[in-house]
Amino acid sequence: MHVLVIGAGPAGARCAERAAEAGFAVTLCGSEPALPYDRVALGRVLSGEAEVPALITHGAARLRALGITFRPSTRIATLDAGAGRAVSARGEVVAFDRAVIATGSDAVRLPFPGANLPGVYLYRSMADVLAMRRAVVTGTRVAVIGGGLLGLEAAAALSQRGARVTVVHAVGWPMERQLDPAAGALLARQLGATRRLSFAMPAKTEAIEGETQVRALRLADGTRISCEMVVMAVGVLPSVGLARAAGLDVGRGIVVDDAMRTSAAKVLAIGECAEHRGTVCGLVAPALAMAETAAATLRGEAAIYAPRPDPTALKVSGIDVWSAGEIEPADAEAITLSDAAIGRYRRLWLRGGRLVGAVLYGDTADAPFYLSLMAQGRDIAPMRALLPFGPAFQDAA
Ligand SMILES: Cc1cc2nc3c(=O)[nH]c(=O)nc-3n(C[C@H](O)[C@H](O)[C@H](O)COP(=O)(O)OP(=O)(O)OC[C@H]3O[C@@H](n4cnc5c(N)ncnc54)[C@H](O)[C@@H]3O)c2cc1C
């Protein structure tokens, strides 16, 4: 059986590896020129802490040993699911018995005036990161649009290279999807003090100014932030164009069942391009879990992908912040432990006697404890009084 995997990101590479191990003939087509690499670690290349080879997850020798035919710089342009035939943008035809779509997401470029000027960068691929690295020197003024996980990570990495960075964020505190306002305020303060980041919050970008090159960011209140570089980190959209044109069921992502099967018999979909039970994932752990499920489905096993609560940690060294589950849900009770003097903060949300969300700031060592309570849906009534102090205090309860 010949399996074609479309997209050589973490999910595609993992699925190709498992399919090859199972003895299938595997072709892995990726539109990027690079060998499969660890996208999660791109910030280390941006900051200069690592170079490209350190991020490669599937080197040429490993792909050869697995018997995988790897085609870099090969974007699949059309898919005939019924006939089992894909055609690349260069016109090469690849026949398949099964195809696995793993096309991931595309970073969003908001259509501000000036959004396509030289000096405006996205933060998604190795090529984006290498282009930013070439452009930034000590003293370069950078405006990062978006104070979410990726925007903060890019801002800290560029600051590490000597840039002067302002984060422009539409909400009043950073990472609002993962943090409540108090934890967000602690984070902004610490990033300012330790990473020299400035924040404009809440602030709406209206335009990027410049003629042949970025010169400034203009905010809705008229403020101008002078800069030579803009990084747009404002979210991603599942890459579903190929699947939609092939006639597959597509909602926000390519609709898949528990076994990662799409609406087309020969085609599976995994990772950030897939929509499972109405949800599209945005983290690498579920993307890899889907890849494992798809490989099992290819092997003919009855496999079920079971989503887990997605924990989030900011990868800026020296900053310990973690969250999982629902953040500030309107219908939940909250327990807060706060000691501003030592920069330690915890907030837990409970519904019906169960932990449904948690934010840890300053000390995240107990994260696995709270994650397991959430995953198990355990009744926390017997431990409620000491719950914010973590597992070490549970025996005393
Ligand atoms: C800078 C950065 C930091 C991150 N940090 C974290 C983190 O700390 N923790 C975490 O859990 N997640 C993190 N993520 C998210 C994580 O990288 C993604 O969840 C993960 O990469 C998803 O894997 P994927 O294989 O589904 O998609 P992708 O990684 O997007 O890979 C899809 C691949 O398919 C290719 N492709 C698209 N269309 C085609 C086509 N038609 N033909 C051929 N190839 C195609 C794309 O070029 C891409 O190479 C981060 C992401 C970025 C950008």
Fold topology:
Elements (H helix, E strand, L loop, with lengths): L1 E5 L3 H12 L3 E5 L12 H6 L4 H4 L4 H7 L1 E4 L4 E5 L4 E4 L4 E3 L2 E4 L3 E3 L12 E3 L3 H10 L5 E5 L3 H12 L3 E5 L12 H15 L2 E3 L4 E5 L6 E4 L4 E3 L2 E4 L3 E3 L2 H5 L8 E3 L10 E3 L4 E3 L2 E2 L3 H15 L13 E2 L7 E5 L7 E7 L4 E8 L2 E8 L5 H10 L21
Parallel strand pairs: 1-2, 1-7, 2-3, 7-19, 9-16, 10-11, 10-16, 11-12, 18-20
Antiparallel strand pairs: 4-5, 5-6, 8-17, 13-14, 14-15, 20-21, 22-23, 23-26, 24-25, 25-26
The site of flavin-adenine dinucleotide (FAD) has 34 residues, from helix 1, helix 2 and helix 9.
Question: Which key features would you list for this structure?
Answer:
binds flavin-adenine dinucleotide; FAD/NAD(P)-binding domain; 5-stranded parallel beta sheet; alpha/beta; Enolase-like, domain 1; 397 residues; 26 strands; globular
CATH homolog superfamily of the largest domain: FAD/NAD(P)-binding domain
**Helix-strand makeup class:** alpha/beta
Quote the beta fraction: 25-35%
The quaternary state of the protein chains shown equals: single chain
Which small-molecule ligands are present, each listed once? Answer: flavin-adenine dinucleotide
Could you give the count of β-strands?
26
What is the alpha-carbon Rg in Å? Answer: 23 Å
Low-confidence stretches: none
Arrangement of strands in the largest sheet: 3-2-1-7-19
- Report the total helices: 10
What name is given to the CATH topology of the largest domain?
FAD/NAD(P)-binding domain
As a percent range, the share of helical residues equals 10-25%
Distance between the termini: 57 Å
| Tally of distinct domains | 3
Overall shape: it is globular
**CATH class descriptor name of the largest domain:** Alpha Beta
Sheet of most strands: 5 strands, parallel
What is the correct CATH architecture of the largest domain? Answer: 3-Layer(bba) Sandwich
- Average pLDDT value? 95
